Amino acid sequence: MKSLAALLILGMIWAVGLLAFSGRVEQSTPAKEPPVADGVVVLTGASNIRLEAATKLLEAGKGKRLLISGVNREATREDVLNVTKAVKPIYDCCVDLGFAAANTVGNARETAEWARAKGYHSLIVVTADYHMPRAMLELRATLPDTVLYPYPVATEGLDAHRWWKQNATTRRMVVEYCKYLAILAREAFLGLGPKEEAGSPAGKAS
Fold it and tell me: Where is the DUF218 domain (predicted)?
């Protein structure tokens, strides 16, 4: 009986968390005007809208350079130019393509390497609205000393207000929420471990 009650409580906590998560997604767009940062990074996905949004931020002077993380390895710079609809001189001078990332963890690593190589300390992060919470967790884990400004882009076909009315959007929201919880649990677990002393060789390397 106690086990059943515990399961019911856990289920209620999970459901409340899902509602809070979906509410956060719904309220995240349209994104607020971000401040000027050192760079802009966009995480690729199913829609090209986020690429266009990131390019507009670069063209508006919101960052010195743009990293497109997770580009298809078979795509050329010309292919990506056509997708972003960027102004060619700005694209040629200030857009970097990252081909190494295959998922959000890879996006975070690729972004961290790029930001450190450029000496950047602040970034505007562009990705889909439902993906932003998890992306920010991964990026904060790999770039703890970098200021990150989220710039979520509304997802085509995702009604974040009534997401439960369609199987596809329900599945997307639930799966993303579960992934988000998994990253939260991972970071909480890692946080229980010994802390590296600031300035130690290991700390500098990480």
Answer: 38-177
